[in-house]
User: Fold these one by one.
Assistant:
Number 1:
Amino acid sequence: MTLVPVFDGHNDALGRLWCAEGDPVARFARDEGHINVPQMAAGGFRGGFFALYSPEKRAPFDFSAFSVADLEIPLPPMLEEGAALTAAIGQAGIAHKLAAAGHLNICTTADAVRSGLTEGPPVCLLHLEGADCIGPDLLALDTLYALGLRSLGIVWSRPTIFGHGVPFRHNHDGDTGPGLTADGKRLVARCLELGMVIDTSHLTMKGFWDVAEAGAPLVATHSNACAISNNARNLTDMQLRAIGASGGMVGLNFATVFLSDAGWKSGQAGIDDCLRQLDHMVEVTGETCVGLGSDFDGAPLPEGISGAGDLPDLIAAMKRYGFDAPLIDRLCHGNWLSFLDRNLAAPT
């Protein structure tokens, strides 16, 4: 069977490996977690955005919090900059160890991403999920850029000196707090100078519109539609239309709690819920601005998808749903590649 190659908007494999400690190369080589060498090969996973995420404590990821009856979790406090930098540098180091072992190919240009889709190890585009580790002088940004960072999310779901994240809250859109700070607007400007992707996932609605005002193409690497599941982590139709108008991208988040109302209440969802989200986002945003943003290794997955190895089952479901082959190719890799062709630039 010929596999449809997948380029994915978000995963937390590096954070999983850093929190688990031990030998990350050995862990990544075996079938452990959602993203690893055998799972990528089985599912046609040819690359994506690999997140550097700073947790409150260095401990194995635990998804049990997503299975409680009440997920109304308040925003955690701001994370100390030094602790966040330790995590980000450590995870970047793991990425480079995996590249040295031949398991990943760290890419910093659109041409390298495109060629890596069909040959060599799967592509790793380094992404910072939350700029907690960057100070107001922005020097850590330039350091991470030198290590290969090409994408940045201003916040995770907690505040930074740059902006505010949304809480985990249902029956509410992302209009939950202030927009970007003055430092946040400087951070966005510097990212644009460097030709980096700016990710609005986890950002408040006001922050989203501040990024739009800065002239950046609007990207939400792992976010769904409020129209299907009204959740602060999801996007309104107005936001989805703005993403399409800016030539940006939105990536389908597989997390059960963001796929449907029932998923929020029970922690359970299915592939059909993924398809309903995709269908709506394509209708509102446009066929050329939607892709996948799985959140592998960072969230509970829908029934039928236990890891990257099950991506062919999602693609088969797309076919049954009525998506034609050209649209499936765009959703699985083509739209992300075209976006990067347009926007992953050399520093100005």
Number 2:
Amino acid sequence: MAVKITPEYIDLLNGAVEREIQVSLQYLLQHAKIEKLMRKKLPENILLDKTTYDAVGKFLREIGIMEMKHAASIMERIYYLGGQATTMAKKPVIGGSLSEFARLGVVAEEEALVLYRQILEATIENGDYETRELFEKIYGEEEGHLFKFQEYVHMQDESQEETGKLSEWRKVFTDDYFALLNKAVASEIMAIIQYTNQHEKAAYLKLRGRETPLEVVTDNNKAKAVSELLKPIFMQEMDHLEKISERIYLLEGEAVVMPDPLPKVGDTPDDFLALDHAAENDAILLYRKIIEEAMKRGDTITRRMFEDIVMQEEQHYWTFDDYVR
């Protein structure tokens, strides 16, 4: 390979992956918290079709998804260069108001731009012009995110989070209940990272090889098929993450921000399928337990939400089950 590849260079690129996963989760969880903040808005806003929260929430969700796409693109490049893309991320910081979301976003984006300048310099030193082109594009988008966050930094928040005596109906939402719901949040974060990494690893050149006449004729193979199978699934897991964390925030809890268990990637398409099959099995068992607990507490909304999510997770399970032997 014409590009000079060193462990230090791969580590530098993985630093970008860690950063992109971190901020993607940060912005998506902030978006989930918007609904809680919006319910504390000034009474005058009842006259409006759209509030500040709607505008900022839309922005946060859009860039949260874009950051995960950045992570995926960098992962794919790392695999092409013969490295192993990380599944680790620094701990996201959520905050409690729109202006705080903005301040945290400014810090995150400024840190990214400093790191990406280092990477751009390293791409020249290593003769890696393809990676340079990728990071030039990402750098421009991150700069746009920074400027957008700067617009909101000095915004006067319409309300601040309130603390006080819990209403009677909310007393059923105890710490152990939030801990159970947060197991689901941590599980969804794990799935998002695991499936995204596997999707990009399946695009790795060595896994794309055509070995049989059927693969040559169809211009397809198992790695490509698995890669295409994973993309809609991890997008659906991102939707699950937002719904569950939003529910936790509305019930006056705090969502966790790190995966549990840790993501596992594997080396082959068969590894991916077996690991994901097991992950879906564990998620279904956990979510059935949550449904049972929600029924005991009369938490109808959470029960119905998880019943819908379980149906989708079972579809994922059977999709993987078709290929697991």
Number 3:
Amino acid sequence: MSYFRVISIATNLLLTLLGLVIAHFAVFGVAGVFCRKRYPKTDKINKFGLIIPARNEENVVAGLIESIQKNNYPQDKLQIFVIAHNCTDKTAEIARKYGVTVYEYNNPEENTMGYAFKYLFSCIERDYGTQNYDGFFLFNADNLLDINYISKMNDAYNYYDGESVITSYRNSKNFGSNIISGLYGIYFLAGCRLESCGRTVLGCSTRVQGTGYLINSKIVKNGWPYVSLTEDWEFTADQILYDNKIRYCDDAIFYDEQPTNIKIMWRQRVRWARGHLLVFYARFADLFRQLFKKETKHHMSLYDITAYILPSPVLMFGLQLIQIALFLTAPLIDKSLTMHRVLFGFTPDLILSDGLIITYARSALTSYVGMVLMAIVIFITERKRIRGVSFIQKAAIIVCWPLFFAAGIPMYIQAFFSKGLGWKPIPHSDQTSFEHVNKKEQ
């Protein structure tokens, strides 16, 4: 057996095994495109606390508060809590003008959103008692709510008897601002349609993405422990470890503001990548062991999050780099070969008859086309919910979508070596109003 064949079989076997581990993601994607989970209207009106962490968000915090107060849900069953976290502006002052409960917390050493949640829940427990609420919504200050958001989430919450975490449809306030914001918009819609929707339809737990989700107050009876760079990943992993499911409500729509420049996009996504890696280091072993325990109730959900928490794109990229490096050593092993023949073809081994450059160019083109088709599917399925995006912008977003995805590889590499990576706020200034995002309902 030739050197080429040995290397190809070994590395391709590993790539195939990794692909099989995550192959079920495609099933969720197909289910999400063609099916949706609807929840019947409920007569039970729950009492909710609404959590808004805000760090220098004087430009947008009023918009979220107004969208809550104008929501189609009994206001006497809602209490809004704002935590002004390490603020140096008028966030707290503006929030108090709306009659909401505001706490201020300043500790530069505790600067992630998780610390804001931790401090705020301790204040709520002290002053009101967390168990006096049926559940809590967790938002970000730049969010805006659809007029029926809370009622739709209440329907889903009651459908599962309050035992499941409910996450929601994440749309963008500034989808059409430029290509960067549009790429973010597609990213989150893909998460909703191809991930969360399909998982819920097929009875599997999904995951929370950032904010826009509802939890039972029992979850925070002992406080909020998730304070890493990506507290949503930590929270998701633990809920599934504890056999709690996370469900998705497609009819509950909220909007948030996306970055519009490459520098902020890169910084944010590197932070996400670092947080993902930290959760992988901290939770993977526990998740994997739990798969083999008899008392585990939701094996598919547990397997899914265990596979999802793997940094699969990085692992696949690393294996391919190893394969290429080993192929390039072929002339040292087989003196009949030259580097030109290895790179451009005409080798005696059928596996590399096209050469490395043509082989990997073909693979890259196939991946690119697949990602383009994914973006087209999202634009088609979500066409009624995507606003303010011209045909030219859509075309540009579709063309750039594979590059947005591929950029994750160098971001993960940077995150791997950025041991002291900290959290920095993302500036928000979009002034989209509640009336604008709800104009079809008015």
